[in-house]
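Trying the structure run again after the queue cleared.
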Amino acid sequence: MPSIKEILTKSANRLRKVARSPRKEASTLLAHSLHVSDIWLISHDDKIIEVPKDFEEFIKKREAEYPLEYIIQRTSFYGKDFYTDERVLIPRPETEILIDKVICTCKDLKSPTIAEIGTGSGIISIMLALLLPNAKIIATDISKDALEVAKINAKEQGVLEKIKFINCNLFDGVNQDIDVIVSNPPYIKKDEKLEKNLSYEPDLALFGGEKGDEILKQIIDIAIKKRVSILACEMGYDQKEKITNHLKNYNLKAEFYKDLAGIDRGFVINQKYKGAI
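Done. Tokens:
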């Protein structure tokens, strides 16, 4: 039988074509299979073990570009650990910037009511509930499955009672006054070819319509109708001009921001000092 070190070396070689950090991913998968920590593996790398059957299945899945986060059903976001599975989009690091923008924009609001459209795994609403303890949070999603995942995460993070989860399309049936709308909606156009790993994620969370920006524009229209003070959204890399032109219909301008790679990633409309949108 092989040692842990030998298992990891062999597995890492198999993952080189699909993983940026093949050794790290192999270690994560073996730790998950053995129900131990990565640190335990490092300190016991000479230990002789039988290769777990599910570990071999994990490696085969990963070789087929099945997302690591779905295999281990966990993902790291904003310094915290969240549950995730195929019912929801895997949280991306760039979405942390969206949360930072909302936090910064809301810092002078004493007790804002914040509504997230399309909460998915719930990570945005949960982080806002944690970072803005005086805020009232509403989280909507058209997918009941996604809301189940969001509630699991909210319970794990101790904020289940602080967030009102609503199963609806966009904002249908939400009638109360809202100060802030935040959203990371589907914004990929229908016929865009995706990388293989994205094919495992839910279409409902990826595709925003024929052109890709349809849902974003609907959210802007909702914000106008609701007369919210702040709207913050993530968007596609090529949608800045389209969003700008749509806002001209309302004589509004947005502050656009880039992600860490320098790519246009989102926008904020802040009208709290000028009257509602």
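The two ends are 67 Å apart (CA to CA). Worth checking whether this holds up in the mutant runs.
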